[in-house]
Design a protein that fits this description.
It is a single chain. The protein is of the alpha+beta class and about 150 residues long. It is built from 4 helices and 7 strands, in the order E-H-H-H-E-E-E-H-E-E-E. A 7-stranded mixed sheet has the order 1-2-3-4-5-7-6, with helices on both faces. Strand 2 and strand 3 form a beta hairpin.
């Protein structure tokens, strides 16, 4: 059975950190280092959360919900970031379960929009995001920023 977990509320955090570190994606490895090094909240904001989509002890997808993300010095908030689905589970829109969970959380918190920064075209539109604008990321590279409106 699929389950959504918030990593800070799990008893076996280090186990799940390791699963994130197993991702074959440099940003996943970076998130792993932030979590293990205790700097995730410094970078993304004290209220930030890491959500996991699991089935038993298997990690299917993960992403973050944070005040800030890869786009520095912006008033845009909140962000979905570090969005990843392990290859064996792709093509089934599993990450959509986490996006929907975050959407409801953002709505509950009174936000009007959610943002995501990416180099992927055609992915986030499937989940209700619309292209917003291009912005420079922390490395000085251009990134596509998508926005999802939250209906109140």
């Amino acid at each position: 059975m699929l389950e959504i977990k918030e990593i800070s509320k799990t008893d076996d955090r280090e186990f799940w950190f390791g699963k994130i570190g197993d991702a074959d994606w440099s940003a996943g490895k970076y998130l792993y280092s932030l979590l293990c090094g205790g700097t995730f909240y410094d970078l993304c904001g004290a209220e930030s959360k890491v959500f996991l989509l699991t089935e038993g002890r298997e990690l299917i997808s993960f992403c973050t919900f944070s005040k800030t993300d890869d786009i520095p010095d912006t008033a845009l908030t909140p962000w979905i970031g570090f969005v990843y689905t392990f290859p064996a589970f792709r093509g089934k829109r599993r990450i959509g379960k986490l996006i929907e969970h975050i959407y409801l959380l953002a709505k509950e918190q009174g936000h009007k929009n959610i943002y995501v920064s990416t180099d992927q075209k055609g992915l986030y539109e499937k989940f209700g995001f619309k292209f917003f604008q291009e912005m420079k990321d922390r490395r000085g590279e251009m990134s596509l920023v998508y926005k999802m409106d939250i209906e109140n």
